[in-house]
Amino acid sequence: MFKKSFRLLTSIGMAVLLSAGLIGAKPQTVMAASKPPNAIYKVDTDKKVVALTFDISWGNKVPEPVLDILQKEGVKKATFFLSGPWTLRHPKIAKRIQNMGFEIGNHGNLHKDFSNYPNSWIREQVALSEKAIQQVTGVKTKLIRTPNGDFNPRVLKTLHDMGYTVIQWNTDSLDWKNPGEQAIVKRVVSRAVPGDIILMHASDSSKQITVALPQIIHQLRAKGYQFVTVSELLSNAKVSTKVES
Fold first, then answer.
1. Which of 51, 100, 221, 243 is most buried by its number of CB atoms within 10 A?
2. 55 tagged catalytic
């Protein structure tokens, strides 16, 4: 009697499992919907770390003084986004950036908004800049900051398909507007948060950054901040993105 009852219960259990598709069925892989690529503005972290980033597209009067300041202040971690033409025109400065151990990213070739051009043009421009930077510094870039910070979902996908991560910023110094050294310092120091990506320029258009930069470094350090590269931020914390339309 016990054996019959056991066999009956087993048969019922097998039927339930079969009907539920838990046994006797081919394995199925549940594919998670892939998220569209985003630009990165900051990372979410409790650590007091920030990434100082500098865009360079033209000029040779400001870049070296910026490097001198970083060297004098003992800042060994920063990220520079270089344009292709600038890199070819000023190879000694580009090599110095690389030799000082700073991270190098791509800032495109022609300084034009990517969203105004087709994907083929974007790929060509990025490839030209990538080639120039690698030729001069030996660095194969993986991070990109688009000219003027301009992009849309199509641009993001094109760059992502090329193997690039698009880096924006959470704190904009607005140094290129030359609003006054103290205005630049106050804007950066008052807005910086843990995990921040801070936008500055080492192009000749940023005429006041060399006066503001030492104060920014001192005041951020006084608040307990340490400086890291963008890649170091990304490798140690959750990224904060914004969906651009």
1. 51
2. yes
Is 44 among the catalytic positions?
no
- Give percent of the chain above pLDDT 90: 80
Q: Is residue 206 part of a domain?
A: yes
Catalytic residue among 44, 55, 68, 196: 55
Tell me whether residue 1 is in a domain.
no
CA 38 – CA 42 distance, rounded (Å): 12
Tell me the residue range of the domain where 161 lies. Answer: 39-242
The residue among 209, 215, 240, 236 whose CA lies nearest residue 66 is 209
Annotated active-site residue in 90, 107, 175, 201: 201
pTM for the full predicted model = 0.84
Q: What is the CATH number of the domain that holds 101?
A: 3.20.20.370
| Packed helices 119-137 and 91-99: angle between N→C axes, nearest 10 degrees | 70
pLDDT digits (tens, 9 = 90+) for 96-114: 999 999 999 999 999 999 9
Count the Cβ atoms, other than its own, within 10 Å of residue 31.
Answer: 6
Q: CA-to-CA distance for 90 and 26, rounded, in angstroms? A: 61
How many domains, in total, are found in the chain? Answer: 1
CB atoms within 10 A of CB 237: 17
Residue 171 lies in a domain: yes
Does 229 fall in a domain? yes
